[in-house]
Amino acid sequence: MKEDVSTVGAASPGELLRLLRDGVPRTRSELTAVTGLARSTVRARLDALLDAGLVSDGGSEASTGGRPAGRFVFNARARVVLAAEVGATHATIAVTDLAGTPLAEGRFEQDIAEGPDVVLPRLVAAWRSLLEDADLDSMRVAGVGIGLPGPVEHSTGRPNNPPIMPGWDGYDVPGRIGAEFGVPVLVDNEVNLMALGEHTKCFPEAEHLIVIKVATGIGSGFISNGMLHRGAVGAAGDLGHILAPHAGDVPCRCGNTGCLEAVASGSAIAAALRAKGVEAHTSADVVALVRAGNLEAGQAVRQAGRNIGEVLAACVSMFNPSLIVVGGTVALAGEMLLAGVREAIYRRSLPLATGNLRIVPSQAGDDAGVLGAAAMVVQHVLSPDVVDRQLA
Amino acid sequence: MKEDVSTVGAASPGELLRLLRDGVPRTRSELTAVTGLARSTVRARLDALLDAGLVSDGGSEASTGGRPAGRFVFNARARVVLAAEVGATHATIAVTDLAGTPLAEGRFEQDIAEGPDVVLPRLVAAWRSLLEDADLDSMRVAGVGIGLPGPVEHSTGRPNNPPIMPGWDGYDVPGRIGAEFGVPVLVDNEVNLMALGEHTKCFPEAEHLIVIKVATGIGSGFISNGMLHRGAVGAAGDLGHILAPHAGDVPCRCGNTGCLEAVASGSAIAAALRAKGVEAHTSADVVALVRAGNLEAGQAVRQAGRNIGEVLAACVSMFNPSLIVVGGTVALAGEMLLAGVREAIYRRSLPLATGNLRIVPSQAGDDAGVLGAAAMVVQHVLSPDVVDRQLA
C-alpha cells in the first residue's frame, strides 16, 4: 500500500521539523517517544532532514554509561531568504536566515511607476550584489518574499487593480522572479507585511492587532487570531478610503469624497498647510515642520490623528484588538499624531474595548515590511506540506 | 521515558479521530500506512477510541483471500451536545449529535433580566425535558454551549460588562452549568455564535464573512480565515455603537451620540415611526407594517438599511469579506432592508472589494445561534488535545 504522508502531518519529515523548530535539541529516542512513530520511521525522516541540511547534529547527550546519543536541532542557517519591501518611491531589501533574522540589508530610491520590467530586474540585481557583498552567494535560496504598495491577490502573487502602480495590474511577479532563482516567490501588500513584521518580530503575544501606515497614503494590515487577515481578494485593510466622519466633501483620488486619505494622509496635510501659506509638499516636509515647532503643522498633524482615530474607533468596535501600531512617515512626527489618534479612539469606543488597548508607535520602523516579507516566506517554506514535498 | 502525547498531535488518539472525522472507513493497515505510526501504537489508539465509543466498527473490507479486515469510522452518535441561544426575551435550545446535527429542538419566551439564578436553572430543566421527550436521556452528554446577548470572555465563559443583562456581569456560567452535567461548558456572545452557525452549516466555503443581526439592538459576528474572530476581550463585532455617518446627535443608551443602533435598530425605527404618528413599538411591529405595505415603515426600514450599509462599508474596506449575512427580526422585512444595505455599501466601498461580495439574508434563520453553539462545543470536545486528555 502506498504511504500518503501528506494526509496526516505529524508523521512526516515536515512535522518532525516543526517540532524541532522550538530550538530544543533532541535524541532519536526522545523523538520516537514524543511522536509515537516507529523507530525506523524516525530514523528515515531524520536522515532526510539531515541530508537536506535542515536539521543538524547538535552534539551528544551527557553519557549515562552507554554509547552517547546524538541530539538533533533545527538549522536556521541551512538556506537564505530574499525579502523586499517596495514602496512608491523606495525599496528595502534583505537577506535573512530561516528564522527571519537579517544577515544583510539594503535600501534605495526608485519609482514604482517605472513598472515591473524595470523594478523587478533591479530588485534581482540588488539581491545578487547583497548576497555577494555579504559572502552569502554560495548559500541556497529557500524563497523570495516581496511587498508591493497596492492590493495583491496573494494566491497568485499578482497585483489586483493597484491604483498607484501603472503597468503592474495582473503582472505575474512570481513567474518573473521565480525564473531567476527557481524557488517559491510570495507577494503581498506591503502594509500587510508591515503587520506581519511587527507581529512576528516585536509583538508575538498580540493575537489581534492592527498596524496602520500614515504616509503619502494611508493603509493598514490586520492580524486576527495570530494570522494575517488578507480578505477575499487581498483588499483588506483599506483604511484610507473609509468615510472620515468629519471630512466633509473633500474629493479623493479614488473618485469618492470624504475618504480618510483625502484629509489625513501626508499629502493631504501638506496641501492643507499650503492653503494656509505654509510651505509643505511631502510627508517629510510636514514632519520637519512639526519637529521645528511650527504651530500650524503641529495642529494639522494632531487633527489628522483625530480623523484617523475616528475611523480606527470603528475598527476597534468591530475587531476589539489588543494593540494598534502606528507607523509610516507621518508617524515620525511623534506624539502629536498619536495623541490625536488616542483622543478620538477613546472618545468614540466602548470602554470595554479600550480598557486594555495599547496604541503605540511602530517598533520595527522602516524594517517592518521587509521583516514581514521574510516571515511570510519562512512560514511557507518551513510549513510541513512544503518541506514534505521538497523531500519527497 | 515518559511519553508526552500532547506535544505532537498526529501520533495521539485525538489526531487519529480527527483523521477519521472525514467519514471514510479505514482498516488498521490503512491507518498504519497513513499515519506512519507503529502498528502496535495504532492498535492501542484505536482500542481507546473504540472503548470510548467515538469510533465504531464500520464493517469488513471485501475479502481478498485472507482474514477480513475490520474498518473503522467516526461515530457521531457517541454523545450528545446541549446547545442554547439566549436572547433578551427568548431562548432557543437544542440537543445535537457530535456532527452538530439537531436531534431535538425547543424555544420559549423568557427575560434575560431575571438574572442567571433564574435563567440558567430554566435552561437546565428545558434541556432535561428535551432529552427525555426525545428518548435521549440515556445518552452521554459531551458538552454544553450557550450564547448570551452581550460580550463574553470566552476563555472563562463569564459575561463581560453586558449592558442589557443585570446580574450577569462576571457570573460563572460554566461553573453553574458544569455542576449539573459534569462536562465542559462553553459560552459566547450570541451574535458570534450566529456567525459560527451560518458559517459551519450554510456557508462553509466563505473564509471571511460578517453576520449582522438587526433586531432590538444591532450586533455582528465575524469569521476571519475560517475562524471566529472574538477579539482581545470578546468584544469584537460591536457594530451597534459605531458612529453612523449621517446619524447626527441622536443619543444612544451607551452614553454616546450618533451610534448606529440609535438610528437603525428595530427600536429606533419604531421610535421614528411613532414620532410620525405611526403606531409601532417593537421590531415585530415594524416588520408587520412593512409587510402590510405601510409606506412610512418601508421608507424607515430602507433608510435604516442605508445607515447600516454606511457602517458596513467601512467594514468591507477593512475586512474585504466575500459574504455579508443579514439576520435578526428587522431583516424579516425582507428586500427593503437589504436594498438599503446594498445601496450604501456599493456607493461607499472600492470596486475591488465589492466585485465578488455577496450580501444575503440569513440562511439558518432563528437556528443560527443554537447551531453555532453546538458547533462551538463540537470543535472543542473533538479537538485532539481534549480527546487525548479524556482518554488519558
TrEMBL record, chains A, B:
It comes from the Bacteria. Pfam families: HTH_20, ROK. Keywords: Kinase, Transferase. GO terms for molecular function: kinase activity. Belongs to the ROK (NagC/XylR) family. This is Putative NBD/HSP70 family sugar kinase. It comes from Saccharothrix texasensis.
